[in-house]
What we know:
The complex is a heterodimer.
Chain A: E1 9-12, E2 18-23, E3 35-40, E4 47-50, E5 64-69, E6 72-77, E7 86-93, E8 99-101, E9 105-109
Parallel strand pairs in A: 1-9
Antiparallel strand pairs in A: 2-6, 3-4, 3-7, 5-6, 7-8, 7-9
Chain B: E1 3-7, E2 10-12, E3 18-25, E4 33-39, E5 45-51, E6 58-60, E7 68-73, E8 78-83, E9 92-99, E10 107-108, E11 112-116
Parallel strand pairs in B: 2-11
Antiparallel strand pairs in B: 1-3, 3-8, 4-5, 4-9, 5-6, 7-8, 9-10, 9-11
Amino acid sequence: QSALTQPASVSGSPGQSIAISCTGTSSDVGGYNFVSWYQQHPDKAPKLIIYDVTNRPSGVSNRFSGSKSGNTASLTISGLQAEDEADYYCSSYTTSSTWVFGGGTKLTVL
Amino acid sequence: QVHLVESGGGVAQPGRSLRLSCAASGFTFSNYGMHWVRQAPGKGLEWVAVTYYDGSQKYYADSVRGRFTISKDYSTNTLYLHMSSLRVDDTAVYYCGVWMTSREIDHWGQGTLVTVSS
């Protein structure tokens, strides 16, 4: 159960777009379309922002989008806003019927 | 609306046991699977355990298998995590979450802090 690989940090200016990658294996990210993404502000609980690779829950801004190619999934945030500054985590269901998270990416809005 | 409230955290000595609770409301508890996820201080999220909606299937992370047990009490709409043989590296905020749609955690509680220290 190795953690999925995410960059430790990314940054962007307001209005720009950024992408966060999430790399796993054929036993998790590459094996299913069950990748989800979570946003976590400091000292807050995580919040679901993308599920099943591309789907947004009701109420989540359409500035958030997801995609996947092979063993790597990506989260794209367009039109960056100050409120987007947070930690982002990917997660995937695995062939062992367990779940695995990425190490997390700190997004800084410059 | 979905509401999850964890409790039971605190300080425990290595080797001892602790039971966490997660009181659920705002949805039909018996229809959905539930997770425990933890976060060590200053670290990332780590998935811990899941129970399917009816308790028929339960799965655990390698780091806790054989020491932790997840269960649901349908009479009180409460999720539990019984933790035994606690280790210093079990120190973390423990979150419960509900799985409602596909293979994601749709809603999360606010977390409860467990500190394992002698």
